[in-house]
């Protein structure tokens, strides 16, 4: 757990001195909000400028929160007790139920406040955002409520379910580009053409003020003992608003940011003392997959947040289940993030008897993330095609097969050498419901000359065969077997294949989409003698983590 930042350093410690100087100053005698800053720091000149600036910013933010217009679109959500968790963890745990907002996340607060404050001329022209997530839905609802035209630009690969959710709220969806950056660029083009106003997801003071109303409600709903509030962090809009309000009124309450460990941009920024851009961002918790903390949020929160805790995918998943057990709500992974941090805090500090608040910040989960259920639901809704394809067993043919599948989401991949001439592939591909899309994939594969069996309705294949690696090949051959972690993003498999020398033959391949940020892949390769000693050098160059498994007993027993 990283201890970073610290509002107390710059302001005051409850019952202590000016933490920055390690001695008492006048600040300790007064609630700082009642005093002009120069008076606070007559004994602390070194920080007078910094503190006065920060204090002004804090007071401005709190005023904006108090004046925020959110309740025309959002509701005051309950702060629900979590009796099972509280008993289990020996602390009083309260969950702020932002999943109960009309768009199932808090994002409508900031979007509505920002839009309500636009001029009539701006409203008349309409608003725009590039987003495939909760911001898009919040914006769409806010726009409809205010009678403003809203345009949302999303990458073309955005799941249909999200596109439909935004359209259903009356916004116009424009699908553009494969990457999010292309969607963002296109939004700028549309702004230049049509004069729309851009509504940022977090990097804006009015958005922050809207999100800050969550903090305002928490303090109102729990006027008694309150030890810490755990807040999920993406771009920092939510935590900046909450921290400003809470630290202004109840500075003794800890505000603890929680980040997914593969998108910990606030932790990185606080450690570096400035905003940094993360090289890679895991997308498992989509809502918080942000590479750089927002400028406006960082300016507000950098001196206010007590601590940042990072959690991994498994911890988030466990928290989804915990929330379900106490409330029957199915939160998205970002929605359960702050509870995962809260649990880790208790584990690491041994806290007991404290009152701790976490925020279920959203419930817009993709159902297919709930693995077991998803496996069957996907098929039940005809959103997954299960195919057996036979391809020629020669270098390059696996790559060609991947090209035909294209950028569709692959849910499963088993590749096994069959004989000198052929290899069998068992593949799960996400398709649009209705059957046409599945027929299209099959047609493309058959047109390329591959025999295809459609196993989508075959119970044996779905229940058993899919989890088996493909069995032993008929002839013995030398095979190197490695296990990899691939980042879960379009093109990762192609990148891997492109980096391997063309004369290495892939003889085994097993991949299963676990709905996690990293896909686990097992690969068998026939490596020419001359390359044997250098196999791992090639893998180092690709940059994915790997483990040699050629001598693993499970492989020896069942696959060799
Ligand atoms: C469910 C959920 N939780 C948390 C966050 C993080 O909010 P912020 O970007 O303001 O830090 C988001 C952002 O979209 C979200 O959708």
Automatic annotation (TrEMBL):
What keywords is this UniProt entry annotated with? Amino-acid biosynthesis, Branched-chain amino acid biosynthesis, Isoleucine biosynthesis, Lyase, Pyridoxal phosphate, Repeat
The protein's superkingdom reads: Bacteria
Which reactions is this enzyme annotated as catalysing? L-threonine = 2-oxobutanoate + NH4(+)
Pathway involvement?
Amino-acid biosynthesis; L-isoleucine biosynthesis; 2-oxobutanoate from L-threonine: step 1/1
The GO terms this record gives for MF are:
threonine deaminase activity
EC number of the protein: 4.3.1.19
Is this entry keyworded Repeat? yes
SUPFAM superfamilies with a match to the protein in the record? ACT-like, Tryptophan synthase beta subunit-like PLP-dependent enzymes
Alphabetical list of CDD domains matching this protein: ACT_ThrD-I_1, ACT_ThrD-I_2, Thr-dehyd
Q: Residues in domain ACT-like?
A: 385-457, 480-551
Q: Which cofactor does it need?
A: pyridoxal 5'-phosphate
Q: Name one Pfam family in it.
A: PALP
Spell out the subunit comment. Answer: Homotetramer.
Function, as annotated? Catalyzes the anaerobic formation of alpha-ketobutyrate and ammonia from threonine in a two-step reaction. The first step involved a dehydration of threonine and a production of enamine intermediates (aminocrotonate), which tautomerizes to its imine form (iminobutyrate). Both intermediates are unstable and short-lived. The second step is the nonenzymatic hydrolysis of the enamine/imine intermediates to form 2-ketobutyrate and free ammonia. In the low water environment of the cell, the second step is accelerated by RidA.
Q: Which family does it belong to?
A: Belongs to the serine/threonine dehydratase family.
Put simply, this protein is called L-threonine dehydratase
Source species of the chain: Modicisalibacter tunisiensis
**Gene encoding it?**
ilvA
